[in-house]
Structure formats: structure tokens, C-alpha cells
Fold:
Amino acid sequence: MQLQFLGTGAGIPAKHRNVSSIALKMLDERNEIWLFDCGEATQHTILHTSIRPRKITKIFITHLHGDHIFGLPGFLSSRAFQGGEEPLTIFGPVGIKEYVQTALRISHSHLKYALHIVELAQEGIAYQDKQIKVVYQTLKHGIQSYGYKVIESDLDGELQADKLKDLGIPSGPIYGQLKKGEQVTLEDGRIINGLDFVGPSRKGRQVVIFGDTRYFAQHAEFCKYANVLVHEATFGRGEEQMAYHYFHSTCTQAAEIAKFAQVSQLYLTHISSRYLAHDAKQLEKDAQKVFSATQIAHDLLEVDIPFHD
Ligand SMILES: [Zn+2]
Structure:
């Protein structure tokens, strides 16, 4: 499971930071990639990655400001030209359906795949299957804006096949029974308990991706103990009033949330174009004084999401 930042800028594109989009790559886990937001030219950025558009099966939109959705119609149409036949689902606030359908209709774009659009409420479960669940809550941004939490199910322990082989138990269907923790009687009369040969289960990972928002201490509840939190940092330290006025956060406010929530890693994104490379580094330094495991994201940055030890 990896995160790749496709666009890390706020509001308007800058030379080195395009507008918002993040890919959650789960190729090993489920052969899928999910997008969070799809700012203008996201499809151009994707050309600089190994991401294949047809692998993108879900797109979660945090809110309907243009810098988070203007890339959608173009991406959706191109995906159809690039052999995308797998269905795709878009989740987002009320209005996303009208926006997408209108853009596709007026531009005579005909997709060759099934497109589903799910409009969400205030909070709840956006998506769930056996492996994974996505919950969302409303943030504070003047218009409907969501934070999404991707919750991976706990992973079953691995069967310790080496130990079984050492005992002279050949592999076969019996391994499947043992992996389920069943007790099995061998032909030679030995009784083997599967539970003795299955390693510990692993706690699934949690990734929280916030849309644009003002600082609000209670947001920490939503990301409690997450492995990764992605939070906007449109403004720098000392600009709290401005951040409040424009419904955004400062880098240190994002770090406060990470600290309260005791997440493992914080990534700052949605960086104002007022901050060039050097100044952007300062945002990171200031945030690190509050929460040391902070990194400022840049376009194309790819990071692994480790399990908790
Ligand atoms: Zn924005």
C-alpha cells in the first residue's frame, strides 16, 4: 500500500505544484488504485507515473471546489480511450453527479465502462467490502468538505509452513485446514492443532486523507492512531487568522491534529503557491516542532504505508 501525491498545490497550479490529487496504490493488496480528488491536469501528471488509468476504480472527492474536481471529465474520458473497461465509482458531496454528467453530456463523451456516482451525506460509510472500509466525516470548509479514512481489515496470521515441513507434514489441502486454525488428525495418528502453526494476525492499516478544512481540534478523533494522516497546510505558522478566515489550516495546526491523534506519520499538502521551495521547507520545519514525524509532500512523492509494529 503506497500513497503517491499527484498534485500538492492549493487553489491554482504552480510550476512545481499542480492542484490536488492523491493516489492510494493497493496493487499488491487488491490490484486497484484509488484517487482522492482530481484537480485539473491530474491525467497529465499520471503520465509521469507508473499508474495505469484503468487500474483506478474509485475516486473519492473531498469537496467541489474547482481545484479538486476540474480534472475529472478529462480523466474519465481518457480512461475510456486507454482500454479502461473496468467499472469506476465516484464518491463525493451532493452536486458531483450533476457536475460529471453535465460535463460528459455536453462534450459528447461516451464512456465504454460503467460509471457509478455516489453522493454522500454528512458522515458514515462510503464503501465497504471484506478487505477494506472507507468512512467519512464532514470538515469545516464553508462548503461540504470530507475527510476520508481508509480502514484495512486485520490480516490473518501466516501459516508457518517451514515448521510443518520440519515435522514431516507434507503440503496439501491439510495446510488450508490448519491455516483456519482447525485441529487435524494425520494418517499416522498424530493430532496437529492449526493454532500452533499460525503466526499472529496483523492489525490492518488506516490512512486518513482530509479535504480542505479549518483547524478543529475534534478532527483528531477521526484520525486517532492512524498510520498516515494527509492534512492540508495552506498557510504558514502565524497565519492562523487568515487560515480561519479562508477556511483553511496552517502547517502547525495540521501538526497539532497529528499530535492529538497520535498518528504515525503526517504529510502536509495543499501548499499555497506563495511558498516556493525554500519557504515550503520552512512549513515543514515549523510543523516538525509540534509533531516530529511530519513531511511536506511534493508532486510525484511516493511513500509506503507501513504496518504498526
Ligand atoms: Zn483546495
